[in-house]
Amino acid sequence: MLILKRLLTLILFCFTINVSFAQINTDRPTQSASAFVVPKGRFQVETGFQYTRITDVVYQITYHNTLLRYGLNDLFELRLSTSNEFLDPALDGRNRTFSGFGPTILGFKSHISEENGFWPQISFLGQVQLPSGQNEFEVETAVPAFRFNFQHTINDNSSIGYNWGMEWSDLNSEATNIYTFIYSVSFARAFTTFFEFYGAIEDGSNDHRFDTGLIYLFSDNFQVDISGGPGLTEEAPDWFLGFGFSYYPK
């Protein structure tokens, strides 16, 4: 938690610096999906590492957490994501570990509307987890998820965004409602920071979380990020910390 406190202090200090917009439109490191699709013909890679402290004795490491995006045109993109997972100990109560590939996820994002006054930029994201993965991370049947993504521009340097959607753990389960709300601001020509609330609601179980992070734009096609935050309810993990990068070839 000391690392998270220091990160938050750094980000709050940065608000005293004169800002100017700088960021690739990505879906990481935030939990919110951007309202934008990647441009036609662009192949974009977003990848990273995450450490999650689930309880005092259980933690999970996600590495090679990679999302590949390709713009078929300026209104529609294709998506593929996969990851490697390590869980210690397993959640079945026995003192053992699990590691392996997580499920492969195929999806798309489509543009719905441009921002116009109070009307936000809107897109739709649909995806399906394929029957894949190893050990505790596998899914046995294809399961869907979707979300609507919204963004309002506040000024040249800042914006707010929010997502709402539903996801399923299997075809026989009740749907889980998912939400995000994010405020982001750019500063010092190459930095962007954000503050975000997000979570899931299912049958009275409330998993609410908070995160914040810092994004640095090295060039117009390469940026790095760091993020982290705590769980806010008993159902949520204790905290997480992650880092990664996003890139597209010119």
Shape: globular
* Count of DSSP H/I helices: 1
User: pLDDT average, as an integer?
Assistant: 89
Helix content: under 10%
| N to C succession of SSEs | HEEEEEEEEEEEEE
Low-confidence stretches: 10-21
Radius of gyration: 18 Å
Polypeptide structure, described:
By secondary structure, the chain is mainly β. It has one helix and 13 strands. The protein has one helix spanning 2-14; strands at residues 43-53, 59-73, 76-88, 98-101, 105-113, 121-129, 143-153, 158-167, 176-187, 191-202, 205-219, 222-230, 239-247. A twelve-stranded antiparallel β-barrel has the order 1-2-3-5-6-7-8-9-10-11-12-13. A hairpin with a 7-residue loop joins strand 5 (105-113) and strand 6. The longest helix is centred in the first third of the chain and has 13 residues, at 2-14.
Gist?
The protein is mainly β and 250 residues long. The protein has one helix spanning 2-14, and strands at 43-53, 59-73, 76-88, 98-101, 105-113, 121-129, 143-153, 158-167, 176-187, 191-202, 205-219, 222-230, 239-247.
Set down the secondary structure blueprint:
Blueprint: H1 2-14, E1 43-53, E2 59-73, E3 76-88, E4 98-101, E5 105-113, E6 121-129, E7 143-153, E8 158-167, E9 176-187, E10 191-202, E11 205-219, E12 222-230, E13 239-247
Antiparallel strand pairs: 1-2, 1-13, 2-3, 3-4, 3-5, 5-6, 6-7, 7-8, 8-9, 9-10, 10-11, 11-12, 12-13
List its traits.
single chain; 250 residues; mainly beta; 12-stranded antiparallel beta barrel; 1 helix; 13 strands; 5% helix
